[in-house]
Structures are given as C-alpha cells and as structure tokens.
Amino acid sequence: MKKRLCIGNVLFCLSFLFLIPLRALSDDAAVSVYGGAAALRDPKSTDISMLSEVVRISLGANDYHVEATFEFFNHGPTTTISVGFPSTGHPFSGELENFHTWVNGREVAFEKMPEVIEIDGKDYSPEELPSEEDRLDYDPIAWLVKTVAFPGNEKTVTRVEYNAPYGIWSVGTDKFAEYFYGTGKSWKGDIGRATFVIEASPTVRIVAKDLQNLNNSFKVSRRSNGSYKLSQENFKPQGHETLFITLAPESNARGGGTVPKFCDWAYSKQIIPDEVLEPLSDMELRIFRNSFYAAHGQVFKSPALNEYFKAIPCYQPHSDFKESDLNDTEKSNIKKIADYEKKLKEQLLKK
User: Fold this and answer.
1) Three-state secondary structure along 191-228?
2) Model pTM greater than 0.85?
3) In sequence order, which residues have a C-beta less than 8 Å from that of residue 241 and are 6 or more positions away?
4) Which residues make beta-bridge pairs with 216?
5) CA distance 167 to 61
6) How far, CA to CA in Å, does 216 sit from each of 54, 70, 144?
7) How big is the chain by its Cα radius of gyration, in Å?
8) From the centroid of its chain, how far is CA 334?
9) Cβ(24)–Cβ(141) under 8 Å?
10) Buried (b) or exposed (e) across 242-264, using 16+ Cβ within 10 A?
C-alpha cells in the first residue's frame, strides 16, 4: 500500500494551478479488506482488467449527478474480490448522496469502510493517525465496498450512480465538479477505453477550457446539445488523475440569457471574443448571428426568429432593411459566428 497524497500537493491543470482536493469521486477499484478497513489493491495481484468505462456527469443548479458503468474481463480463474468506490467528507465538498451500485444489472448491497493509511510501514485507520500533523496531511475517505464474483474468461459489468454537491475552493470563488479516475490503476494492465460525457443544464453552462485533466490526454469534442465528450484509449492511470469541471461564481453563472441583447449593442463596434461564443448552444448561436440583422430592423422569414425578436422591446422591424446597413465590424462578427457554427457541425460529422 502507498501513502496517500496530501492536500499540499499541487496539480497543474492546463495553465492553472489548483490545490488537489482529494475527494475521490472515482472509478470502481479493486480493494483489499482487512480489520474492517479497505485499501487500494496492487494491480499485480489480480487477473482482472478494465475493458471500458463510461461516465456521464450531469451538472445541475445545486449539485451534479454521476452515472458510471465499468466493463471488466477476468483473464484468470473464477474469483470473488472486494470492489470499492470512495466517498469522503472533505471540507472542499460533501458526501456522496443517493449512492447505488449494480453488478451485471442487479443492484447489490455495499458496506462503508474507512481507508487504511500506511505511514513508515505501519497501517492506520484515519482515527488512529499518530500525530495532529498526520491528521491534517491526509484526506480520510470511506470506501463503499461491494463483493463481486468475476467468472473466469468472462466479462462482468458494474455500475454506480449518485449525486454530489459542488466543491468550492473558498467563499466567493468558482465551484467545481470533479471525477477522480486514478483508482483505475488497481486493475490489471491498461484501461481499454474511457469515455466521459459532461452535460450542462438550463442553469449551468460549460466551455471547453473548463474541462481540465492532469495530462490533457483526452480527446475533447463538443456535442450538438452543448455537452462535451472526452475520450481516451489504452492508458494506465498512475493513481492521481482527476477531471475537473469548473463553474462560474453565482454572480456570473452561465445560464439563460447568455446571448447579448442588442439594445445596448457593443458588438457593432468591437469583435466578439471567443469566450462569448463557446458557452452558447446551436440555437443561441443562430440567434446571436441574427441579432445583428435584428438591430437594423430586418423582418425574418423564420417564425421562431420573429417571435424571439418581437419579445425584445428595442426591436423595431421595418421592410426596407438592406445588407449595406451593416457596418464592417458587424459583418465581421456575423462571419465569425457563422464560421464557428460551421466548425461545430464539422466536428459532429467526424464522430
């Protein structure tokens, strides 16, 4: 067993520095259980590999929902081992809620166990740590442990589902969701394929730069509904890999009304920054592009666009609109939005 990373360790995520909040929202892991406590298992002690994992993270207003499915293959004889999923009460975030787990489609019971921590060759439970310094350096977790029978030379599928409150670094700062997939190291060999789907909601928006992982090795693609898909194949976690999803502070939360209103139209005089476009859905991008025409009173053939702009008090439709009414900056912004929409469609066609 290895000593756990302490809170003081620092993680480079893209160009940002973050403290590691060791809240292990994690892959199902092979664990050893003894004395009523659990510890991550040495991968050399098992013939079971993880063929794939599919993790769906849905971001809500107050918490986020996780559904994770893991497919395993036992290359050896039939065996029964303990499989654990970590839960914790770290001060940056709270406990998992409404946790359920299944094996081959059947919901199974689990037992909550403390983690074994090794210091100088001796094992301790979190309550037994010998000094106050040790207690501060370790983020005690609880393993949610189930017993799983893995038939020889066959596949076994496990699944977990839960809700989790957002973490927060300090009062007034960004909230975050996270998924710690490093515990996949406990299985034999590489993980065959990992897929993460990050779904926004009417009250929460995400952009690509808010999806950060330790080694930036995931392929990231945007989906048509504004969600993101991350995927990676044939990799071996080292034990600390974490996916972070950063949300804006409450005062700047991304949500409805993200399309700038042209009543006070700054983009007639300045080019639209990339970060303004990234959070917008396909429909919002279409509305934004047509807002330049609406600002000059164009009447639209689309009933949906007409209804949308009629609800904006400063919209004054008139039938004599012509393309030359647009200035050069507005034309450049329209092209920029159209090019961005085309790029998104091309990405979807490649899937």
Assistant:
1) EEEEEEEEECECCECCCHHHEEECCCCCEEEECCCCCE
2) no
3) 180, 181, 182, 213, 214, 215
4) none
5) 13
6) 18, 22, 29
7) 25
8) 31
9) yes
10) bbbbbbbeeeeebeeeebeebee
Rounded Cα distance between 330 and 70, Å, is 49
Half-sphere exposure of 280 (CA within 13 A, CB side): 23
Q: Which two tokens stand for residue 8?
A: 């003081």
Domain assignments of the chain as residue spans, ordered by start: 10-252, 262-349
Residues 192 and 233: their CA atoms lie apart, in Å, by 5
Q: What is residue 333's three-state secondary structure?
A: helix
Looking only at the bridges linking them, the beta strands covering 79-88 and 48-59 are unpaired
**Count of all residues that appear for the chain in the document:** 351
Distance of CA 103 to the CA centre of its chain: 24
In a 10 Å sphere around its CB, with 0-12 CB exposed, 13-18 middle and 19+ buried, how is residue 213 labelled? buried
Question: pLDDT higher for 77 or 346?
Answer: 77
Q: Mind giving me the DSSP string for 2-29?
A: -PPPPTT-EEEETTEEEE------B--E
Domain 262-349 matching CATH 2.30.33.40: the answer reads no
**Under 8 Å between Cβ of 147 and 28:** no
Tell me whether domains 10-252 and 262-349 share a fold.
Answer: no
The stretch 133-153 carries a mean pLDDT of 77
Q: Which two tokens stand for residue 187?
A: 């299985």
Q: Considering only CA atoms, which of 227, 231, 174 is closest in space to residue 201?
A: 227
Dihedrals φ, ψ of 135, to 5°?
A: -65, -30
The structure tokens listed for 214 are: 């330790």
Helix (H, G, I), strand (E, B) or coil at 295: coil
Q: What percent of the chain has pLDDT over 70?
A: 70
Closest CA to 198 of 3, 18, 338, 58: 58
Average pLDDT, stretch 218-222? 79
CATH class for the region spanning 10-252: mainly beta
